[in-house]
Amino acid sequence: MMGGGLAIMTALMCLSMVAQAEDPYLFFTWNVTYGTISPLGVPQKGILINGQFPGPNINSTTTNNIVINVFNNLDEPFLITWSGIQHRKNSWQDGTLGTMCPIAPGTNYTYHFQVKDQIGSYFYCPTTSTHRAAGGFGGLRVNSRLLIPVPYADPEDDYTVLIGDWYAKSHTQLKSFLDSGRSLARPDGVLINGKSGKGKGKNEPLFTMKPGKTKYRICNVGITNSLNFRIQGHPMKLVEMEGSHAVQNNYDSLDVHVGQCYSVLVTADQEPKDYYVVASTRFTKQVLTATGVIRYTNGKGPASPELPPAPEGWMWSLNQFRTFRWNLTASAARPNPQGSYHYGEINITRTIKLVNSVHRAGRKLSYASTAFPTSTPPPLSSSPSTSRPPRRSSSITSSPTSLPP
Ligand SMILES: *[C@@H]1O[C@H](CO)[C@@H](O)[C@H](O)[C@H]1NC(C)=O
Ligand SMILES: *[C@@H]1O[C@H](CO)[C@@H](O)[C@H](O)[C@H]1NC(C)=O
Ligand SMILES: *[C@@H]1O[C@H](CO)[C@@H](O)[C@H](O)[C@H]1NC(C)=O
Ligand SMILES: *[C@@H]1O[C@H](CO)[C@@H](O)[C@H](O)[C@H]1NC(C)=O
Ligand SMILES: *[C@@H]1O[C@H](CO)[C@@H](O)[C@H](O)[C@H]1NC(C)=O
Predict the structure, then answer these.
(1) What is the pLDDT of residue 402?
(2) What global pTM score does this model have?
(3) What is the mean pLDDT of residues 377-398?
C-alpha cells in the first residue's frame, strides 16, 4: 500500500516536473556600452550591445522564457523595453519608467519574461534619456511553435530589417533640446540596419536572396518619422502584423510608422542581380532616403540606379492601413478570452477617443497619446519614443476633456 502510494506520488511529481520543464529558456548576457559608430559617414557616440550596433537579434518561439542579464556600462541610468511584447501580469518587466526603476550605471538587472499568445516581428529599444537616438535597439522575433501550422511555406531565408530616422547630434544634445522646450527638428538621415547606403553601388549586400521566397521583418525603430519601405522590382506579400497572421495582400511599398513592424514574403523571381531596398521619410518637406543592396545568390550585376518612387500624401498611408486585416481563421498564438473569431458580434459598451498632443510641462516639451482629466497628471515622457497611453483605465475619460495647453 505504502509503496504503491509513494510510486504514484513520485509519478505525479515527475509529471509536474515535466510540465514545468516544458517551456524552454533562452539566456542572454548583454553588455551595454558607448562606442564609436559612423552610420552617416561621420563618427559619433553610439550605444552598443555586446559591441554591436544595431544590437543582437533575439530569435524566440512562443512560450519561451527569455532571461536577459543587462549590464549598464553607460554613465547614465538605462532601461530597455520589449516593444509589442505583452507582459501578461508581468508589467514590471516592460522596461518603461513608471513600471520599472532604471538600471543604475555600473550595475545590472535581469529581465525575465515569457513570450506568449503572440507570434511575429518585434524589436527592443531603450526608453530612457533619448538613448534610442543613439542605438541600443535590435530585432525580436517570436516564431510559431512547430506543431502550429503557419499559413505559408517555410521561406528560404528570414531577415530582420530595422529602418529609422537618424540624427547626427548626440542623444544628450537631443534630450537637452526637448528639456528646454525645443523640438527635435529634422533628422540628418535614414538608416537600414545601421547603414545609410552612402557610396551607392560599392556597398556590400545587406542580404542575399536564393531563388524562391524570403521573409523580411521590417520595423521602424526611429524617433519621429514615418518611413516608406520598398524593394526594387519586388512586391511584398504581407503575412504578419501586430502579433498575428494577416490576410495576404501584395504591396509595392509599405508605410511603416514609428514603432510598427510588418513581416512580408518576397519572391526572388527576377533577373539574378542586385536590387536596392529603399527607406525614405514620409510627410516631410525634404525627403531623406537610405538604400541597401540585396543580391541574388545565383547572379551578380549592379542594381539599376533608378529607385522606385515613394507614394505621396497622408491619405495614401491611411488607405493602405485600412487594407490590413488579421486572418482570424489562420491558426496563431493569439489570446482568445472571449472568442476572437466573433469580434463582429461583441457589443460595444464603451468608446474611448484618443488624441495625440504636444505640450509643455514647465520648460520641458512632452508628447502624449491621449488627453487626461486635469486631476490626473499625464505620464510625462521626455522623448516622443516613450509616449504611452495611460495604464489605469479608471483614469481615462471617454473623450479628451482637457487638451493639455
Ligand atoms: C563590458 O564592456 C566593457 C568595455 O568593453 C568592459 O570593460 C567590461 O568588462 C564588459 N563587462 C562585461 C560584464 O562583460
Ligand atoms: C530561429 O529559431 C528557429 C526555431 O528554433 C530556428 O528554426 C531558426 O533556424 C532560428 N533562426 C535563426 C536565424 O537563428
Ligand atoms: C547581476 O549579474 C550577476 C552575475 O551574472 C548575477 O548573479 C546577478 O543575479 C545579477 N543581478 C541582477 C539584479 O540581475
Ligand atoms: C486565412 O488563412 C487560412 C489558413 O491558412 C487560409 O485557408 C485562408 O485562405 C486565409 N484567408 C485569407 C482571407 O487570406
Ligand atoms: C448584443 O446586443 C444584442 C441586442 O441587445 C443582444 O441580443 C446580444 O445578445 C448581445 N450580444 C452579446 C455578445 O452580448
Answers:
(1) 57
(2) 0.84
(3) 49
Pick the CATH number of 157-333 from 3.40.50.1370, 2.60.120.650, 2.60.40.420, 3.40.50.1220: 2.60.40.420
**Grid cell at residue 80:** 530597455
What is the rounded CA–CA span in Å between residue 187 and residue 136? 18
Distance CA 265, CA 219 (A): 15
Residue 71 Cα to ligand 1 middle (Å): 8
CA distances from 33 to 26, 36, 67, 105 (A): 22, 10, 20, 10
Closest approach atom of ligand 5 to CA 342: 13
pLDDT tens digit string along 264-273? Answer: 999 999 999 9
Distance CA 130, CA 366 (A): 12
Backbone angles phi, psi at 17, to 5 degrees: -70, -40
Q: Which atom of ligand 2 is nearest to the CA of 59?
A: 1
Ligand 3 cavity residues, CB under 6 Å: 69, 108-110
Contact between 270 and 220 under an 8 Å Cβ cutoff? The reply is no
Ligand 5 pocket, residues with Cβ under 6 angstroms: 345-347
User: Any bridge partners for residue 230, and if so which?
Assistant: 253, 278
Distance of alpha carbon 207 from alpha carbon 160, whole angstroms: 10
